[in-house]
Structure formats: C-alpha cells, structure tokens
## 1
Amino acid sequence: LLEHLNDTVKPEVGEIPAYVLADPKVYDLEHKKVFMKTWIFIGHESEIPNKNDYMLRDLAGYSIIVSRNADSSIKAFYNMCTHRGMKLCRADKGNKSAFVCPYHGFNFKNNGDLIGVPLQKNIYGEELDKSTMGLTEVRIESYKGLLFGTWNDEAESLDDFLGDFKWYLDILVGRAEMEVLGAPQRFVIHSNWKIGADNFVGDSYHTMVTHGSIAKLGMVPSATYSKMGYQIHSENGHGLNLGTPNPDFAFPEELIEEYKSNLSSEQFEVLSNLKNMIGNIFPHLSFLISHTKVKGQLISNTTVRLWRPIDHDKMEVIAWFLVEKNAPEDWKRRSRESFVLTFSPSGIFEQDDTEVFTDITAAAKGPMPVMKNLTYNYTMGLHRKPVDFIGPGVAYDDKFSEANQRNFYKYWLELMNS
Ligand code: FES
Ligand code: FE
C-alpha cells in the first residue's frame, strides 16, 4: 500500500488519487501513522473552568477523561479502570473529585490515584498495592486555551508542532480571553475526514458557488466571495486563508485595548482588516472567524471544529463556539446567533458543505476499474510565487490557490511513510 501511495500521491505536481478518500486500508494506515502519532485537539480549557470539572473526549478513537484537579492543573487519563478494564466514566461532563468504577466500585481520585477499594482489608488482606494501580495518564499540552493530546510519547512539543502557525492562532484564540459557550455541537456525516480538512485549509474557491445563495440573501457581504486576501501555509501541513480587507470592524469595540495588549501591532492590523479567516491545524482541527449580518450589524463569530474520523467514509463533526469572555452579553448572544445561522448543524454554510462532502465520499467509492486511474486536480496556483506578508509562513497574495492542500498532503504522505 505504501509503495502504491508513494507512486500515486503527488502533491508537488498537484495529483491526489481519489482512492485516498475511500480505501479502508488507507484509513487503517492513517490511524496508525497520523492519528496515533500527532497532536489531536481535545477541547478548550474554558470547558472545564472549575476545580474538579471534567469532560470525556476522544483521542484517536479512545476515550479519555480530561479533568481539572484541586490545584487547577488539567490532567487526562485513559478512561479504563485498572482492575478489570471497565470504562470508568460514562458521562459527557460533570464535576467530580473522584471517579467510582461502575463494575466493582474502585475509587480513583481525579489526579489518577487509586484511593479506595471496597472491602479492601477484608478481601485482599495487606497485599494490594494501590500505588501501582493508578489510571494511565495521557500526554496533553495546551496553546492559548486549546488543549491537545497525543498517544506518542516521542512527539515533539505542541509548541514545536504548531511552529510559525501560532502567529495566526494568536489572532484566532489569543486575541482576548476566550470561552466556549454551550456544549460543542456534534453530528455524524458520511464523509471522509480529509475532505473537511482540505476544504478549510485552503478552499475559498468553492464559496462563490456552493454558498452563492447566502450572498444573495444579504447575510454576508458579497465581497466575502471574492478571492481578495492571502493564502498562507506553514510546516507540518497547517494552513489558512485570510480574507482581507474589510472596511467594517466586526469585533466588539469595547475590547480593542484587550486585543492590543494580547497581539503584536502586525497581528492587530490583520485582525482589524479581517473579512474572514479559515484554516486547518493538521490533521483535522479546522477553524473559522466569519462575519455575518445579524439584524443589520456585522458580527464576527469564531468556531473551531474537528472532523473526527469514525471510519473511512464517516466522521463526527464537533463544532465549538468561542467568544470573547469580556464582550458585552448582548454581543455574545448575537455572535452565537450568527454561528448557529451559518456553521452548525442548522447553519446554511454547514448544510451546503456537508452535502458536497458526502457526495464526494460516495463518488470516491466508485467501481475499481474506474477508480484506479482517477486523480483529483490540485494544480491551482502551481505557477505562482510566494509574496511577502507581515506574518510568517509561505504566503500567496490571493486566496484562490491549492498550495495549502498540496502542503497538507505533502505532510500527510510524510507521516504515512514514517
Ligand atoms: Fe473497575 Fe472492577 S473493573 S472495579
Ligand atoms: Fe464552505
């Protein structure tokens, strides 16, 4: 399979074979080489703001408990009791200083220690050494509130993995104190996960067609659909499209001082001129700042979303809505409204996109004699040279290019070979 992949996946010349979206064997190898090796988004720190808050999350197909301890630090554990392996915690989220196993009642403190065993002295005598039976800790790190986990003890630090791309993530989630409002919205669609990542990492080209109806409704400025702006990517497959310029500041004016104190002057300049910002942190954490007109006023909304693979042709979309914690309550409410109207299971953009994602996946599962030779065309912008930009990375001076998708697949292939 690897030999075949290396022969047919050619991002440098803009050729990606269709079978990479539909072959279960590719999916199995991805799980091993990509999802078990790299940093995977698990949530935002503000989802568990108080001591002893916890949430259950998925890390590459395995359940983990992410918990804020009595000392306010956040730890994560494999969600498995060390006695006989029962799934220790089964609620999505809550507040608990300790977890009692539903099978025999072993009791684990939220720092992972086994602290109680029913009838211990009576049935085990003095023999049971509880100190060797703590929960298995999972490696997690955070950047500006974004929590990531990995099963790979040898993975580089999250900081190194994000590299230059942090400059843009500062604008996304470091511009102010941010909080997640509401539980993340989750829905399952019949799509390969890479289509979502591919779409967000660099595909602004589809907006004027797929989402054409929204401009006609006047919900977004029609300029959103122009190609004006920048396409930027950095190492490790990360990339984004920056829509710019924008004459209207779509963020709360009250927070300008907070933005200025958190961002460099160059970053603040990007924020001030932002029309939208759409990107993907490799492998599958996409993000978006988009502006929508709500009752005549242009309002930004910020979302991060995971294309969590369930199978080669199925994924769960998990969408978090983020907002400036210190924004006026009314502004927060309207921002959330603009998120729900656009990117959520009931959002218009979301419905436009997911229909495309599922149809591409279905077609990629076509008959083998045909599929054998079918490749997607990723040559857009191959002839162009990067330009200077005030932020880091390789930048192109408009958004209609497939350089970011080529960069995504280049790193994907590198990991598949690792
Ligand atoms: Fe958890 Fe037995 S499996 S106490
Ligand atoms: Fe879209």
## 2
Amino acid sequence: MLARRQRVLAPTYRLFYEEPLHIVRGEGVWLYDAEGRRYLDCYNNVPVVGHCHPRVVERLARQAGKLNTHTRYITDTPVELAEQLLATLPRELTSVTFTCSGSESNDLAVRISKVATGGTGFIVTEGAYHGTTETLSRMSPVTGVKTAPEVYTVPAPVGAQNVTEFAPRVRECIAQMKRAGVQPAALLVDTIFGSDGVASHPAGFLEPAVAEIRAAGGVFIADEVQPGFGRTGDAMWGFQRHGVVPDLVTMGKPMGNGHPVAALVARAEVMGEFAKEHRYFNTFGGNTVSCEVALAVLDVLQREKLVNNARVTGDYLKQGLLELASRHPAIHEVRGAGLFLGVQMEGRERTTRVVNDLRRESVLIGSAGRNADVLKIRPPLCFGRAEADIVLETLDSILRE
Ligand code: PMP
C-alpha cells in the first residue's frame, strides 16, 4: 500500500510516524489497522464525538437517501444549523456562511475583514497555521512558507513572558505597519494556539490584544477550527475563555465529525459591509447532507455532555501529566484547557522519539510548536478516565526507559 500510495499521491503528502499506520476502521476513541491491532486515538480532534458515531452515521445516510442540494433553494437543514450555531455564540454574532473547510472559512474572513476595514495588514503568530489557500499559506509561518509582505508576526503567547507581552507586541506590530504605510485589517489567531504549541493560561490574555487591533481600526478573527465545539472544556468556543466577542469566527474540522463542513460567523455590520458588493456561493458549502451531519454532531455533543467531559477528563489528564512532569525532567511544562493539551518537552528529537515510542505502544499522539517540541494530546471528546490512564501509564513507562 505504501508503495502504491507513493506512486500515485503527490510528494507533498506526509505520513505520521517512523512506522506509518495502515488504518482500516475506527470506532469511538479507537483506530484499527489492517492486522486488526487497535490504537488509542489521542490526537484526532476531527471525529469529535468519536470515530463513526452511529447516530451521526445514521443521520448522514438517511439524509443522503432523501435530498442533497445547495443553498440556492430554501432547504431546512442549513437554516436549522445556522440557528443552532448562533444559539451557542454571543448575540453580536448574527450571520452564518457555510463552507467546506477551515481554509475556505478563513479565506473568506480575510476577504471580509479587508472590505470591512479598508485595511490590508494582518497580524498572526509566529507558529500560526490558518490554511491552504495562496493567501492563508502566506499567513501560516509554521509551514516554513515566507509570510506575505502585509502579514506581520508576533511571538505566540507560549510561556509566562510571552503571555504578558502579547498585547504590547500586537501594538508594536500595528505601529510597524503604520510606519510602512499599511492599514491594519485584522488580528487572526487560533484561540488555543495549537500549532504554536498550545497557549491557554491565564484565560483572558487575548482581551487587551483584541482592544489594540480594534483601536487601530482592525477587526479580530477568531480561528476556532481547532478549539471550537467544546474542546477546551469550559465553553463551546475558545474565545469565550478570554472574555472577548470576535468580529468574525471561523470553524471547521470537528463540525462534521470527519465530514467536510465548515462555517464563518460574522457580526451583522462587518458582513453587511462585504455583502454590499460581494455575493458568495459555495457549491458544496451548506449542502443538505453536510448540514444534517453537523446538526447530528451538535445533538450528540449535547446528549452525551461531551463539553463537560472535555473539562472533567481534560483536568484529570492534565493533573496526571503535571504529576509526570514532577518526576520526569524531560517534561518542562504542561499547558492547555479541556482535551487540548500541550506537553512542552526538552528538544525536538526527544519529542519525536516519545511520539514514535507511544505509537509502538498503540497510543497515537502528535507534536506541535515551531520547534516540534510539544506533545500534542487532542483526542475525541468521548475520551474517558480509563483512556487517560492508558496515556499516563504508557508515557510514564516510556519516559522511565
Ligand atoms: N485553522 C487552523 C487553526 C487549523 O488547524 C487548520 C487545519 N489544520 C485550518 C485552519 C485549515 O482547515 P482545513 O484543513 O479544514 O482547510
């Protein structure tokens, strides 16, 4: 399979792990390989309610057998989904646009923010990742791509000093822009700073940075593609931990539990400005089946109280990791909220070794950060205490070795 794959798939693709996995089936928090061996999935945030959740699969299949069309007809599911999404968001956010990926949502947010502000300058973090389009790849320095001339970077608020200096650095960026004759359009951040290596505490640190961009005439775009849909445990959306109301919110990944459905939600005045001169039609964005799937995900999140579980199990796992940190000097810091945890390790090589050793013990995690020296733990939200114990025990024994 590996040879066949390499023959036909573009060389831009990357596989996880020194010994890549050939996965054939998923169920809940488990993935199964071609030999029937099972792996604990501690990494996939997309299947948020668990791999192949029967309720989601059933509603997807039922809707696929009934109707699948686009947003140029009046259909029920996009309206129902928009209403349900808005009910989870602050009341200032009133207008939903459906897309098929986080990239499409962010790309649209960038367009809207330019029109709404008249600006062209963007501020992102040094380890940001925001998507695949031409525009977004040049706002995603973690990939090694050179940022566009009007994209300015600030160090991510990882570590105590960078947290307190985050807002002043945003202000400094704005001053630099102005000196270069660039009018600010937006501050765009992933509100859990996943690709930067996870930055979560103290909650509230985003607020003064958002005040800076607004004072300069720009808007705040909250990229909720990673933290959204309850992952951070205390709220549905990562920005809510910081007590701010964004101008634009983008979401995707977990929204369809693996099905490609994503969205952008905007304040009325920001979207209104854009809508004066622009139309938006996305062939698959807002299709009947995708919206039904997203409704099923919201339904399961609520029924199974998974946001609460993210908090309870996340706290338990974080405590366990802190305990490991007290015994293993290779762990420098444990960050994160809910079931989005980052374990700051000593060095890239060691981190890579731990990730691969865990995979050999059937525990799947990944790494993050500009130096790839952070263990990223980000399981489906149906992850329980028993699974957290497996992670802790396996990591403990690997670090002891
Ligand atoms: N924003 C963030 C923070 C992401 O992590 C990603 C995907 N890794 C994206 C945007 C892009 O989403 P997609 O891959 O669905 O286009």
